[in-house]
Amino acid sequence: MNDKDKLAALDGLVLADILAMTADELRQAIADDEVEVFRRALEAAEAVAGKQRLAQAKADLAAYRTGAKVVPMPSRGAGSGLSALRRRDPELDRKLTMAARNGKRDVEADAAGVDEDLAELEEWSKDGEDP
Amino acid sequence: MTSAEGAEEAEDARYAPEEIRAAVAAMPPDEMRRVELIVRYFAHRSGLNADDLRQEAFLRVLGSRSCRVGTTMVEFLAGTIQSIASEPLRSRREAKKAGKSPVTLLGDGDPAGLSVLPADGPSPEEAALAAVFHARQLERALAAVGDDYELQLLVEGLFDGKRGSELEELLETDTKGLAAVKKKLSRRLQARFPQGAPL
């Protein structure tokens, strides 16, 4: 057993003793006013720990904002892909209008998806790839 | 999930930070007394006075350290105090030389930059220093034994890895007698540095 382990053996003995102390022994060893000092130190530490958590949260937020990659969503306005397609193709526009009127809400719900697909098609076209 | 995985997960379950804070704040006075005694016992070895060691332990418990479910707050704090006391001494000295405090100063407005101790393991040089440190600490502790033959026997048995009945046999006593000798040794060791003492 090396010196570190020997110290650990003595520490273990002392800890076991402290954990097994009776209330009377504890009160004899540590007076009420010393408990009060302990309690105040705990409250002060909690205040500091609270500030640390707040500072950490602020730092995390700042790091998140700095590192966040903002991907702009395609606009759903008049200039969006689907709207432009509808303007160019009256037949498609009529079918979509009829579908919406007949309660086929999926068409509207999928509009964003259609826009995304169109944008992707456009990217492929730019890259010269064949979709 | 298999039952073994479930048991493993349960074993690894940790208290949420809010639960730790609530449990520490709700410690009864006698539990605080136990922690205070542990602080005082380890203070001399940590190179900190009792106030600083207590404060550092609180901050770690309330901040970064995680606690396995089922551990009492006294045990949690005891483990934290031991951990601080066993950190490389050299790191603390270097931190002091660099003008940093090894502990967080209350209200000093440095809420984020606490850790002055390196995350890496000790270098060979640090390990050598630690060996010298442990030898010196052991020498100091054994001075508490003095020429008390019973205590000398107990220490010898402990260092030989003996436990329970083996120690009783060595000391030629029964369970109650062994408990009394252990308590005597513990109180001697605690009385050696009642308020902690800087190294």
Q: If you had to describe this structure to a student in words, what would you say it looks like?
A:
- Chain A has seven helices and no strands.
- With 131 residues, chain A is mainly alpha-helical.
- Chain A folds into two domains: 65 residues, no CATH class; 47 residues, no CATH class.
- The N and C termini of chain A lie far apart (72 Å).
- Among the domains of chain B are: 75 residues; 56 residues.
- About 10% of the residues of chain B have low confidence.
- Chain B is an all-alpha fold.
- Chain B contains ten helices and no strands.
- Chains A and B meet through α1, α2 and α3 of A and α2, α3, α4, α5 and α7 of B.
Keywords, please?
heterodimer, A: 131 residues, mainly alpha, 7 helices, B: 199 residues, 10 helices, 0% strand, globular
The number of helical elements of chain B comes to 10
What is the number of strand segments of chain A?
Answer: 0
- The percent range for strand residues of chain B is under 5%
Please bin the fraction of helical residues of chain B. 55-70%
Structural class of chain A: mainly alpha
Low-confidence stretches of chain B: 100-119
Oligomer: heterodimer
Number of discrete helical segments of chain A: 7
Give the averaged pLDDT of chain B, no decimals. Answer: 80
Rg of chain A computed from alpha carbons, rounded to a whole number of angstroms = 35 Å
Mean of all residue-level pLDDT scores of chain A? 78
Shape of chain B, please?
globular
- Which two chains have the most extensive interface, and how many residues on each? A-B, 42 and 50 residues
Order of helices and strands of chain B: HHHHHHHHHH
**How large is the share of residues in beta strands of chain A?**
under 5%
The N- to C-terminal Cα distance of chain A equals 72 Å
Radius of gyration of chain B: 20 Å
Secondary-structure element series of chain A: HHHHHHH
Low-confidence stretches of chain A: none
Largest sheet of chain A, if any? Answer: none
Structural class of chain B: mainly alpha
